[in-house]
Amino acid sequence: MRSASPSRAAYLLAGGRSTRMGGNKAFLNFRGQTLLERARTTLSAACGNVTIVGDPEPFASYGQVVSDVFPGCGPLAGIHAALKHSSAEVNLMLAVDMPFVSSDLLKFLLEAATDTNAMVTVPRTIRGLQPLCAVYRRAFAPFAERALREGRYKIDATFAEVPIHVIGGEKLAAAGFSDKDFFNVNTPGDYRMADEL
Question: Are residues 46 and 10 in contact, defined by beta-carbon separation less than 8 angstroms?
Answer without folding.
Answer: yes
